């Protein structure tokens, strides 16, 4: 009996320990998030230099020189051509009173001479922000939808779940592509104002003016094309991507939360609250919702890596975050084209892929540890 009790105590202590993989993953995840998110104002900020032709300064993630194109990391031995260009860059920097360009190329440079380290930091910040926001939106929507469906029940529950079934049957990539095409069309119409000019010309022509060429010139003066800055266009693209990812990621959460609410409704403490006179929102907010937080937290931690992976996959395909704005997905896509038998610029693919893979694995380990700690402890209680 004593030996059995000792074994039980050891099992409880082992169950309460955090796995080493989760600890290592959490440390790596905190380091990556701190490096990418805290430096985001710097990497997205102006570089201080000037664009070609004397234009305004470029964002730091997009600032580069053709002479510095495709340089390897400073700790990799360069080929003769790369060594010659590095010497020339050092001579120009010395003439301008600046330091050598080596520290800017810790991870090498891309085909436009931009620092891959800066682009990986900026791309990681964008990927993490999109992934976390998309996961937060999808978990919030799924929790509210599933809780209402399970708590109300009856025909409302049946209709709401049929809506989820229909959305499950729609192809995910097709929805994202359609949203991206619709966004591009709306932006194009906003900038060009073609439909407004066509409606104006048609209205004037129907009034008796037959000189369509003159009407077209007048319409161009009345409705001139609008301008849209690169920052605004990038913000719209990121917002559309965020909407696309979160709009289809809440379905599984809604089903799980619904099943949890249906189970909680039959618990004795809910029946006791009902017998004591509690009704409707009071029972839900005081008795059901607090018991859902464990499930919600678990699905939140497991949805973040899924959202980051979806963003990177869509950006890799070219329908997510669009260049020159970086993300780990489009950086990997750009690096893939640099692998060739003539000269393989491996660093352009290796570092974004390693950062993405390490972040996803770390998030998975941390999510599994949270699941084991919250759900398994809840089952033991």
What does this structure look like?
- Helix 2 (20-38) packs across helix 5 and helix 5 (116-152) runs parallel beside helix 11 (251-265).
- The chain contains 16 helices and no strands.
- Residues 4-13 have low confidence and may be disordered.
- The longest helix is centred in the middle third of the chain and has 37 residues, at 116-152.
- By secondary structure, the protein is an all-alpha fold.
- The chain has a domain at 65-114.
- Helices cover 71% and strands 0% of the residues.
- It starts with a helix and ends with a helix.
- It has helices at residues 2-16, 20-38, 40-44, 80-95, 116-152, 154-169, 172-192, 194-206, 212-222, 230-248, 251-265, 268-275, 280-288, 293-317, 328-336, 347-380.
The tally of strands reads 0
Morphology call:
flat
Q: What class do helices, strands and sheet pairing give?
A: mainly alpha
How much β-strand is present in the residues? under 5%
Poorly predicted segments: 4-13
Output the radius of gyration: 28 Å
- Give the integer mean of the pLDDT values: 81
In N-to-C order, the SSE pattern is HHHHHHHHHHHHHHHH
Alpha-carbon distance between the two ends: 23 Å
Main sheet specs: none
H/I helix tally:
16
Helix content: over 70%
Main features:
single chain; 381 residues; 16 helices
